[in-house]
Design brief:
By secondary structure, this protein is an alpha+beta fold. Strands 8-4-7-6-10-9 form a 6-stranded mixed sheet, with no helix packed on it. The two termini are 31 Å apart.
Length: 405
Amino acid sequence: MIEEHEARGRILERIWVLPSERVPLRAAQNRFVAERLCARLCIPPFDNAAVDGFALGLRNEAGAAAGERFRVMGEQAAGRTRSFRLAAGEALRIFTGAPLPAGAGAVQMQEETEWEADGDELVLRGSVDRGDFIRRRGGDVVEGEVLLEPGRRLGPRQLALLASQGCREISVARRPRISIVVTGSELRAPGEDLAEGEIYETNGIQLEALCRAAGAEVLGVDHCEDESLPLRRTLDQAAEGCDALLISGGMSVGSHDHVRPVLKEMGLEQVFWGVNLKPGKPFLFGLLDTRPVYGFPGNPVSVFVCFLRFCFPALLRFQGVASEDTEPPELSCRLGERVCNPGPRPHWVRGRHDRERGLFRPVGVQASHGAGGLSAANALMRMPGNSDWSEGREVRIQLLEGWLL
């Protein structure tokens, strides 16, 4: 067995960034930027009003006092400028986002004025300082400013920023193309009838969902029984055209575990097999030519933990995310109860983080088959082997919600 950090390092050093492609901005959500993007326009692109009110031609440098009167010269709505110019003592009715007229030193909100509709004079109810309620050109973004670096995931906020620059399409990393093979003669597809001793297959749908959460494209999910010849045919077909191959089950040394011998026949360069980790000890990583192959244990919690620790970072790296940015967010909190790990391997404990109380508690069965507890968890805690931690101890946890889409 090798240590977890070494396993991650060996995987990531064998991952390359995929070529880029151009996509419409509307189709770019959750894709990863492939090039540095700089502002072509200032934001705002011109001085404009921050509120509905009146642009004022000030009589002095400081501003205007309550009770001052201004002559109303017209109005400027949002849209094309009407090229007004204000002299001292003149005002222009103006609306939020409208271009500021030349000569305007401040904007006073409408609620702070006395003015009759269509009247030609207004009186200030409150004082106003020079520059009040004016959005200056370039106050948010200046031309040439770096907006997004390669590897940044595009969410609604980033898409809106790019739209403000007039972008119609963008260069993003190509999605990794993933093939998934699930092995196990006892497995049946959800919806089929179960015979005695059979169970429903869950790892295929879990791995497919995890791959999509990482921005990957899943080419197919195949199921194969525990027999060498059908497995070889299935793996040969699945390996065609993919960037990475994910295999669930058959990774141990039992007489029905055929995956490793078949992969060896196919020419797999085994980088490692076996990680000092719980759950997920028999995890395998290797290369078919240059194509990464991930071999997961058959239990669903082992699949989830190994994917997060070893596969999710690689899929992000494929899309240009820096290696140091592939970890989920961490925070400190306290244990809500005593937690023990009597075994020698580090254990990723599944639990619930209570944000209001700042506590973490294990949830469900802490075994590799415990899908119920895994489903209820919103955080993971790594606990060293042979450990006994008391209630109230400060610990570090990794948050799942908000990181896994």
